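Notes continue from the previous slide.

Worked example: a multi-chain complex. Inputs as given:
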Amino acid sequence: MSEKFKISNLDLYYGDFHALKDINMSIHANEITAFIGPSGCGKSTFLKSLNRMNDLVEGCKITGNVLLDGEDIYKGMDVNLLRKRVGMVFQKPNPFPMSIYDNIAYGPRTHGIRSKAKLDEIVEKSLRDAAIWDEVKDRLKKSALGMSGGQQQRLCIARALAVEPEVILMDEPTSALDPISTSKIEDLVIELKKQYTIVMVTHNMQQAVRVSDKTVFFLLGEVIEAGETEKLFSIPQDKRTEDYITGRFG
Amino acid sequence: MNINKLKEIVMKYVFLFTAIISIVAVVLICVFLFANGVPAMKEIGFANFLGGTKWKPGNGLYGIFPMILGSIYVTGGALIIGVPIGILMSIFMARFCPDRLHKVLKPIVDLLAGIPSIVYGFFGLVVMVPFVREHFKGNGQSILTAALLLGIMILPTIISVSESSIRAVEESYYEGALALGATHERSVFTVVVPAAKSGVFAAVVLGVGRALGETMAVMMVVGNQARVPDSIFKGVRTLTTNIVLEMGYATDLHREALIATGVVLFVFILIINISFSILKRRGKE
């Protein structure tokens, strides 16, 4: 499998706080990589450093290298282009307060697509890929805020797909959702890995087991253990990993 | 009965009493205005009063149509000047301006709101009237001058209401747009500001109320001629200035006609306040 992201010697500081310590990791294309760990361990912070959303945080300083297809995203890469290539789905569904159609079309319009026919096509394809087309095709012009939480999150996934990213980052995408919506999103994510590279932060270890190929365990800003999901959960190499996945803390 | 419970009950009535005072004040003003104004309107005739183009109390002509138009023109002009500047300024202050600059700008905007209107009037009379006279047409006391002055006066209202509604927009919208590869500018103008649009409209509506109700400053720069205006370089009289100019010596029907002018103004403001609260409610949904 080809290497999509290669992260080496990454340190991240929020002011004086050393939030991520010497992270080294490879993320492979067309796989689902899950980040697990207790709250505050740095997994979301690390996720956000992959599409430079940490740039918004004041006092955030990053050293080390993050290579996307061999190119360092912190050195000379256009940040808007980076975010087009590396999409993101947030913890809380955040559809824009506009119609379903305009939500999906927002990204393509941002990147210069104006033709109505082309936009129609993208909207339909994205919604189909996010497995929500049948539920919304009759109300594309209605506000996205009238949908259920699970639908909103799938809409946000569709919105991310509409700009044709290479990687999709998901920050606890199901933590605000009910079990049925969660399982729909999990099925969707597994389906999506055929075309995309997916990195997912989750609090739910069963979810990591169900969907991911690789798992990375974070603790206090460090990567404790990383590897094949099956292996990590059945024969953890580190005592702390074992304690965490067996529910002794966290 | 213990003392805390007693305190609770006493305080409840104290609050009720203070709440009633403001309600009673509004009701009394309404009653006074309508009781004095409506009979006068009837006597003059509603059509003659609202539609008449001649205001000559000496001859028994009480047409306030020129003043209604005057108010609308002056307010409209103030909006043309104040709304774009105010909204863009609020967007700048909410999403573009560095913190250190904001610490300077915010107090200045607040100060602008606190300047007494008579001081604005003086500024208008001494600075703006000669400016308009020299660089445009007419004697300087005109719709244009009043619109410029009011445009400045409504800025702080528009800026602060609009800024706070833009700041109240959930950060997740902004982040969502950025995560799709939109620039800061595009995120702000196409997602954040539209999400705050009901608050921004509310800011404009409040600005309308301010401009429509302003009296002293307008009186000093607007010329005060009770005629239907045919050019923005000519003077007009607004509803508010009509009242204040003549109230000192008016008697009988003349006096009541002025109160009726107040009724018309009151109805205008009422419409504006109602649309303001409708917009607010819609914003919350």
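Summary box: Strands of chain B lie at 55-56, 61-62. The two ends of chain B are 44 Å apart (CA to CA).
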